[in-house]
Amino acid sequence: MRRRPPTRDDGLFPSEAEIARRLSQSPREWAAKAKVLERDGLPRIDPLMGGRFWPAVRAYFLARYGLSGAEALAPDGPENLDAL
Asked: What spatial distance separates the first Cα and last Cα of the chain, rounded to whole Å?
């Protein structure tokens, strides 16, 4: 199986079209929604890098839907039901 060469969309600053794809939006829908969401804290396009920082975009949506503090915790040991 041949691997495709990496593209800009594989990096931390994907194109707006790639962000739209990752969010199940058409590029046109995303452009309109991004303007509204930026007023609510969606990371803006970084002028130096030419794109939105994907981890920050992902964190924005996780926080928007109340999942920003969700972590998988390691078990603290076996349960002792006799202690109840």
From this structure: 56
Q: What is the residue type of 35?
A: K
pTM: 0.74
With respect to residue 79, please indicate whether it lies within any of the assigned structural domains. no
Q: What's the total number of domains in the chain? A: 1
- Return contacts of 9-14, CB within 8 angstroms, 24+ apart: 11/54, 12/53, 12/54, 12/55, 13/46, 13/49, 13/50, 13/51, 13/52, 13/53, 13/54, 14/51, 14/52, 14/54
Q: In terms of residue numbers, what domain contains 22?
A: 9-64
pLDDT tens-place string over residues 6-60: 777 889 999 999 999 999 999 999 999 999 999 999 999 999 999 999 999 999 9
AA letter at 17: A
